[in-house]
Amino acid sequence: MKIGVIGTGLTKFGEIWDKSLRDLLAEAQLKSLEEAGISPKDIEMIFTGNMCAGALSGQLHIGAMAAENLRLNVPSTRVEGACASGALAIRAGIAAIESGAAKIVQVNGVEKMTDVSTEQVTTALMGAGDEEVEGFQGATFPALYALMARAYMQEFGLTREELAAVPVKSHKHGSMNPIAQYQKELSIDDVINASMVSDPLTLMDCSPITDGASSIILATESIAKKLNNDAVWVVGSGQASDTLALSNRDSLSEIKATRFAAEHAFKQAGITARDVHLAEVHDCFSIAELLAIEGLGLAKKGEAGKHAAAGHHYFDSKMPINTCGGLKSCGHPIGATGVKQAVEIVHQLQNRAGKRQVKKAEVGVAQNVGGTGATVVVNVFKR
Amino acid sequence: MKIGVIGTGLTKFGEIWDKSLRDLLAEAQLKSLEEAGISPKDIEMIFTGNMCAGALSGQLHIGAMAAENLRLNVPSTRVEGACASGALAIRAGIAAIESGAAKIVQVNGVEKMTDVSTEQVTTALMGAGDEEVEGFQGATFPALYALMARAYMQEFGLTREELAAVPVKSHKHGSMNPIAQYQKELSIDDVINASMVSDPLTLMDCSPITDGASSIILATESIAKKLNNDAVWVVGSGQASDTLALSNRDSLSEIKATRFAAEHAFKQAGITARDVHLAEVHDCFSIAELLAIEGLGLAKKGEAGKHAAAGHHYFDSKMPINTCGGLKSCGHPIGATGVKQAVEIVHQLQNRAGKRQVKKAEVGVAQNVGGTGATVVVNVFKR
Amino acid sequence: MFRSTPIIRWRKYQERYNLMGAKCEKCGKLHYPQPALCTCGSSKFIAHKFKGEGTLLSFTDIGSGPEAYAEHAPYCLGIIQLSEGPKITSQLSDCKLEDLKIGMQMIATFRKFYSSGEKGAIYYGTKFTPKW
Amino acid sequence: MFRSTPIIRWRKYQERYNLMGAKCEKCGKLHYPQPALCTCGSSKFIAHKFKGEGTLLSFTDIGSGPEAYAEHAPYCLGIIQLSEGPKITSQLSDCKLEDLKIGMQMIATFRKFYSSGEKGAIYYGTKFTPKW
Ligand SMILES: [Zn+2]
Ligand SMILES: [Zn+2]
């Protein structure tokens, strides 16, 4: 597989009071077109990832909205897999091109979350879990990840300080990313002493509520080579599923679907975990970043926390992780996240990442998780 | 394009009190597997259409649920385009096979609508329109289609009696379909004298609130030939978009996206409208059936009502339309509808449609609409 | 969706209170509401206030509305072509279904829409009424 | 999602009130709740009532829950491995976070969950509590 990313577009991430769901989506759409140097009429299909607009804005049918924004009548579809919706939209775009149905595709992600109360957001996000098994019990996503964190800490001896190294690093990266929601550094103490959300996770272990949109343009190899002499290539893509409810899985201390998705994506890309120069992973909660790193094979089981504490995941260290600031610091507009991860990898591979630029990066991986790991997508990008 | 439909599965459509969203989905999934004579492990990817489970059951992430039902870890994705979600899932399945990513794919549709109040359903369904332009104004879907009906009646002189011929025919067909929600025949007077919902549309012009699920198994040509000596083939597929809001379109009396989707699907299938032996079309409201017939080119603009009144759309007449009873009589579990349309066409082309069997049918078309026409999918099936 | 916070109300204030749309800077085409792109391909607009007069293209009535409008029903709904060109979906106030006719002239009027919960914000906006 | 009608409550009555799960007719494996398919591939099950005893695999607390549980917070949540095998997500009642320890024995108890609106139905179900 060799599909070109020929344009990227991101809005600011954060509380964007003056922009609606449609405004955010349109802004990212127009930016990716502008960067690709093409006109709306060149777009043959559109796929858009979104999770919560039905619950938070009363708006489904985002596919039609995305086409309308470009004044197009082309096929335009919304894809949803909870927090993995963005990467699923990328996979839909890949399938459209690989099937020959389209040569140039726009892939977007969008979420508008700050129009409603936190309780409404919490309720809406529980749609990612199992409503009958988890939602009825009053479970929340911070709580479900806290269950995983505690089980992992017990099993592998991870300390609270090691876990806190994850958001500290995220905020360091976010401080160098102009679109990030939070651009302020944190200390280990800031994380540990923040208000407790679901023990052992504090507020600083949790990704925030964010508005934002992201967009990329995908094209066939020949078109990408013609239009862009610095295209980045999608060379592998994997997706795997697991039970909706955490309690229905064999282990609470791993996200098995990451392993399955990575195996497929790496095989397709012809790489192994050793070939990966940087990764964007789904750190909706700090524990999730460690599970992601281990699931991708970038650390042995139980060891990701030690690497984090040793500083290996900074942009200028051995294995740069979440150089954009991750979901924690860059923000987590759910549907936009998966596409934003791709944008960050593309910018890094094109040497456009400014102060947080990783040196000599040629292979980047993006891992996007839905729920507590019921859907995982892994996409591999190459220079 | 030549993709085989090697298995079909439908639940009963109606108020299925004792079954949850998950139960309905699982039932259809197991039925299509059984009919195909394959085991869950043969399924390489799953796509599921659903519109409202987030709003009506608090459950998003239906892709993972579908995989869990079969105890699989394969890629499984929910696709949403309002009331066209089912046919969009079929398109996603087609793309998966055409791209070479999978050889056998399960495509499902599901909706569980009777757990909540009618007002909640009405609110959720407005997610298919434009929330800011239509929803804020208190618009409902019956009202938006009533606006189209009145504009069409004024422009083409369609009478109330002609329009009533649509649900009368639907109920005749539904009376011969054991899974239909309503299996009772109606008269023209029953339609006209039913309680007014949104003038000129009465309750008998409106599809009901329905629980149900549907499933098909798609396979490559070679696998389909091996597994099934009576496979029906998907030979063309088209999708088009239009503005979310009805008021932003040029005309209130046509659904332009049907025309665009049909042009593409027919071209791909190598057919014209004259080659079509029967069609399942999206009669969410009786006016929609006339607009669909004209959009597909099965009648000239403004003439579909006369054909309806003349009885041409019965299963044993010139141009059988909605032999399953349509959305009106068979019921309209939103996400399930598009896949059920495919199931009906397959059963007709395989001579399995019982009392409502169309004679010598070899080419069937399914047209599925999202919102007031902001998304339309047309799929062409051949014996 | 009927938001329980006043943010959306503030964001759409001009559009809904004052029929504020947009004029394309490049080709001059008028839009309501402001789109992402003009038909000419430009994305630059300046605010344009519509006069609030137009022609009724179609209409209907709603006996049972969505949750937020439950106590508000029944009401009439129509599509009006503004005299400047764009079309608008609008509630029709101060009239009954029998009063309405395709092609009749309508004018904008400022009205209450719905209130969000018992203590929630009250939402206002423009409705249209026949120009008797 | 917290349904405003009692239908879902009725449908899950046995499962939630009586910890009723399923036993595979073919291989005898126990499940909670009943799945579509057993690991052996069979879809035939008979009802099986779990004893309501198990081991705490992990736990946490929730200070601010979803809308329906707003007045109910704070509460503890855990995953219990039932003595018969299956795992269950459950609220933990009659205990504080400090009381809990991975590996401790838990027993089922019948409790109120939440009420739907001021006049709405009250939902009940099984919670787990430490076996002191
Ligand atoms: Zn212009
Ligand atoms: Zn078994």
Write up this protein.
The complex is a heterotetramer, with two copies of chain A (383 residues) and two copies of chain C (132 residues). Chain A is α/β, with parallel strands linked by helices and 383 residues long. Chain A folds into two domains: 3-117 and 210-232, Thiolase/Chalcone synthase (Peroxisomal Thiolase, Chain A, domain 1, 3-Layer(aba) Sandwich), CATH 3.40.47.10; 137-207 and 236-382, Thiolase/Chalcone synthase (Peroxisomal Thiolase, Chain A, domain 1, 3-Layer(aba) Sandwich). Helix content of chain A is 39%, strand content 18%. Chain A contains 15 helices and eleven strands. Chain A has a nine-stranded mixed sheet with strand order 3-2-4-7-1-8-11-10-9, with helices on both faces. Chain A has a two-stranded antiparallel ribbon with strand order 5-6. In chain A, helix 4 packs across helix 15 (334-349) and helix 8 (160-174) crosses helix 12 (286-295). Chain A is globular and about 55 Å long. Chain C has 132 residues and is mostly beta strands. Chain C folds into two domains: 1-49, no CATH class; 51-132, OB fold (Dihydrolipoamide Acetyltransferase, E2P) (Beta Barrel), CATH 2.40.50. Chain C has helices spanning 7-11, 13-18, and strands at 20-24, 30-31, 45-49, 53-62, 75-82, 87-92, 105-115, 122-130. In chain C, strand 1 (20-24) and strand 2 form a beta hairpin. The longest helix of chain C has 6 residues, at 13-18. Chains in contact: A-B, A-C, A-D, B-C, B-D. The B-D interface holds B 17-20, 22, 26, 29-30, 39-40, 54-59, 68-71, 114-117, 120 and D 1-5, 7-8, 11-12, 35-37, 39, 41, 43. The complex binds zinc ion (ZN) (2 copies). The site of one zinc ion has 7 residues of chain D, from loops. Residues 24, 26-27, 29, 38, 40, 42 of chain D line the site of one zinc ion.
